Amino acid sequence: MLAIDPEVTGQRALKASEELLMAISADILDRKETHFVLWRPGMTAIRAPELVIGTLKAGYPAELDNLQELPMTLAAGLPGLWEIPASDCQLTDGQIYHYWFKVEDTGANSSPLPLISCTDPMAYTVDWRLFPSDASDNRQPAAVILWQDGKLVPCDPGGKQVSFKHDVSPEKLPRNNQLVIYELPTAWVMSRELNEAYCDVGTFRDVRATP
After folding, report:
1. Given strand 35-39, what is the order of strands in its sheet?
2. Which domain holds residue 138?
3. Residue 192 belongs to some domain of the structure
4. Is 4 domain-assigned?
5. What CATH number should be reported for the domain holding residue 68?
6. Full 3-state SS string of 26-75
7. Residue 21, pLDDT score
8. Does some domain include residue 2?
9. What is the tally of structural domains in the chain?
10. pLDDT score recorded for residue 45
């Protein structure tokens, strides 16, 4: 009879799991240049996630125009990693897009599981003006991305992109092992009536505008 050491078997499984996680984490940012990517490790979906994407229609409230709902597929050899090539989404070059992922609500007790729209967990930017039409609260803002020259480019809702060309090379920076980092919440509170506060999210632009 073959003897199996459970401790050794467990260590091998853990190592294999760590190697898989490292491979995905190292590769996922490269994939995000050309694909919409959703990583749901350990989740066995009955229904494939969908990409819900469109353009912002300004107003109050803001709406998603030119709506598309596109099924995603599992990445080959990477369990839990769902993706769809941006080139398959009929996007217009130079256009800013807002999007969510529609997934099964694993917190629900019903069967089949209902679908909910969620923010891209790895979004570069979100727009707090736009929320899913089926949402009961404002907890899932739309993610924002620019489609330009065949690539998905990080930008803000106005199209402004990050530039690091004037940044000092990390090799020339002073040692940073004694940094003190302060958290600056951007939420704001306004008192409408006695003992009734109104809270909402703000932006760092609001902070900079504060005298």
Report:
1. 35-39, 81-85, 73-74
2. 15-164
3. no
4. no
5. 2.60.40.10
6. HHHHHHCCCEEEEECCCCCCCCCCEEEEEEEECCCCCEEEEEEEEECEEC
7. 52
8. no
9. 1
10. 63
